[in-house]
């Protein structure tokens, strides 16, 4: 059951709107910085190794623990810890476009969980994408390591979906590239499972600048 729940959580059919965002990829392509399989691969590897994703993945377990405590006993301290970490992760997203994406996707996932019978203890509490993912993993009993693997995998898969539409990169090459990145996804999940997210750093300045510049494109396929 756990593996099937993970498949549902990482499915591209999950109605959270992830497919509509390129997270700066569109701007990078239009400015010639990403133009083939090798450059896309290098970009994704850099983000997995030095980007914001590492901090969000490392935060999933403490978010999940706080959610578990809060849901089990209506613990006010657990709710405070949850909201503090959730807000800290959002503040790390420099671009307002990325913060809006985190809000929208988080609320869409939480609404889906309500419809599937897994509401938060207090539905009025607003959580963003990583915390919503942690709640889904808790509600569906996905293991901690699978939770991290799924979070990183889902991000890579969505970026490759965008790349297929933006770069001269066919679906087959995208799948080969995804397969080549799986060992790195797995290694990062294992390395981050015991990490304090606040002890990590992000070198994703280029990603933030690309997302900030996305709104300036004359025409675009993806949401700002």
Written description of the protein model:
The protein is mainly α and 224 residues long. The chain is 68% helix and 0% strand. The protein has 10 helices and no strands. Helix 3 runs parallel beside helix 9, helix 4 (52-73) crosses helix 7 and helix 6 (96-115) runs parallel beside helix 7. It is globular and about 50 Å long. The mean pLDDT is 92.
Tally of structural domains: 1
Counted by DSSP, the helix tally is 10
Number of strands: 0
In CATH, what is the homologous superfamily? Answer: Urease accessory protein UreF
Properties at a glance:
224 residues, mainly alpha, Urease accessory protein UreF, 10 helices, globular
Task: Please outline the helices and strands.
Elements: H1 2-10, H2 25-30, H3 37-50, H4 52-73, H5 76-91, H6 96-115, H7 129-139, H8 144-166, H9 171-192, H10 205-214
Entry summary:
The protein has ten helices and no strands. The chain is mainly alpha-helical. The chain is globular and about 50 Å long.
